[in-house]
Amino acid sequence: MEKFQAFVNNRWLVFVDAMWIQYCAGIGQLSKLGVAKYLGDSVGFLAGSLSEILPLWGTLLVGALQNLIGYGWVWLTVTGRAPVLPLWAMCILIFVGNNGETYFNTAALVSSVQNFPESKGPVVGILKGFAGLSGAILTQIYTMINFPDQASLIFMVVVGPAMVVVALIFIVRPVGGHRQVRPSDGLSFSFIYRACLLLAAYLMGVMLLKDLVSVSHTLVIIFTVILFFLLIIPIVLPIILSISDEPIGPVEEVLLPKPEQQEASKSEQGVQEQEVMYSEVNMRSLRTQEVDLLPASERQKRIAQLQA
């Protein structure tokens, strides 16, 4: 049970799940539905503001609901299950649906940055890289399923992100990553880098192969199965770390200071050192004034005592 708790609270597990959410965050690249899509993708201050009020699972839930409502209504309209709406109404729906991606991005970035305060740059770079691969990943999945019409692509845009987010909604969260800093973090990041590069190289190779030669559907299925295998490779890292490392006891967790507390203690220590320096300077100046007021004979004796 302790190993399972260590696995669930492992910051690398949260990071890997955030990468999986980023796979869905770029799903809007597949749909060329107009300028409203790009507007929805660019208005991210709503997600940022709500993330300051709501927990991260609430932010993800809002994004999933927006994705379902926006693209879901578009799918109903395209398939004839809902009445045709005017252009301005369709633009609003597309804006709402694509704006849900900003909530996925915000939750993934905020949780990962809070769990890796000492490695913010690499974490953000890896997450944005995985978001860039999302279009190619979902295209491969769509090709494997072999939907009969283009409306099915919109249906995948509606259902896919919501399923992934709901499955990971309570895992992507801050887990006190500053307490989990290890000397092997450099090797862990190297493993994630290599997994990302391997996935990108594989997707590029598959895309070039499909453009150069005619690929059968059976081969497409094999390519997609290999793709799924490459996607789940990073989960090996938190599993190994949870099994190999001893869990931190509650007493040790209390004794471990947070980064904010460390910075506050450093600032207080600096202020105290400055006060001590100022007091020493003031004492020296007072002693100098006292010596100057003494007669010449006593002044020499006093100077000798101070120098002793």
Describe this structure in words.
- 78% of the residues lie in helices and 0% in strands.
- By secondary structure, it is mostly helical.
- It has two domains: 2-256, Growth Hormone, Chain: A (Up-down Bundle); 260-307.
- The N and C termini lie far apart (67 Å).
Short description:
This protein has helices at residues 2-8, 11-25, 35-42, 45-53, 56-78, 87-115, 120-145, 151-168, 185-212, 217-232, 236-244, 250-255, 259-293, 296-307. It is mainly α and 308 residues long.
CATH topology of the largest domain, by name, is Growth Hormone, Chain: A
Query: Strand count, sense and closure of the main sheet?
Result: none
What number of domains? 2
Tell me the total number of β-strands: 0
What sequence of helices (H) and strands (E) makes up the elements? HHHHHHHHHHHHHH
How many alpha or pi helices?
A: 14
User: What is the approximate shape?
Assistant: globular
The CATH class of the largest domain is identified as Mainly Alpha
Distance between the termini: 67 Å
What share of the residues does DSSP label as strand, in percent?
Answer: under 5%
Low-confidence parts:
29-33, 247-266
- Compute the average pLDDT: 77
Nearest-angstrom radius of gyration?
A: 29 Å
Helix content: over 70%
What CATH architecture of the largest domain do you see? Up-down Bundle
Secondary-structure content class? mainly alpha
Subcellular location: Membrane
Protein name: Nodulin-like domain-containing protein
Keywords: Membrane, Transmembrane, Transmembrane helix
GO cellular component, one term: membrane
